[in-house]
Amino acid sequence: MATTKKQNKKTTPVWRLLRAMFLGVGLLCAGIVLWALSRPTVPTVETLEEPAPQQPCTIAYLFEDVPNTYEARLAEMPDQGCVKLKVRAIGGGLNKAFNDSNHVQLQAARALGIAPINGVWDAWHLRRPIVEIASCPEYYVDTLTHSYPYLVPEAAQLLTEIGRRFNRALMERGGGNYRIKVTSVTRTPLTVGQLRRINRNATQESCHQYGTTFDISYLKFICNDSTGVRRNQEDLKNLLAEVLYDLRSDGRCYVKHERKQSCFHITAR
User: Fold this and answer.
1) Which of 25, 137, 141, 213 is the most exposed place for a label (fewest CB within 10 A)?
2) How many angstroms from the chain centroid is the CA of residue 78?
3) Contact in structure between 122 and 115 (CB atoms under 8 Å)
């Protein structure tokens, strides 16, 4: 009799409802995969008079058998035999030059970006498109723990332009094979809450929720080839600051020099 009762439970309306819910989740997951496959690639920056990279930053690496060769890097930056890099001094120091508050950046993010993604429905009903970024000649995307590699097109273009200007300035001043390192991109309210548990400096009203904001490390840069001209971290940081200062002056972005997180917190405008 006990066995019969257990078997009958599987025919109850509650059990059928649960089974239908699990089936619905499976269909949603399949739909998300199809949606991701149909997303556009990261746009190239047309304002610079340089040819687009032969292998652009694109989502294709995630779905093709061909690996993303731009993921390759040295474990650490070489710290011996570095050649001094000529950089332009920014008056007042980096804290004063890059002090755009979260309030200012939040206003720009809300005006330009998407609405925060609270679930699958929000992801399917974005008010504007987003693109996925991947490591490429202009930058390296770090392993992301509390964010996702998606940006609105303007922010993706800005990130690519920052990397190109950084690389070009480096070549013009004697060389060095380095890339900037992206450490945080778009967050959801859920990942913001998770991050706040381990990082007291993280704010609940995060600009990262709008697809307009990303962080670039100034403590670590990606060295692609240790046999080339070697540069030290401080010079590379100041060169990156030059690039950001010019773009900020042109009204392209807001920038915050984050001392505790060792990064530049950047929001596209």
Assistant:
1) 25
2) 25
3) yes
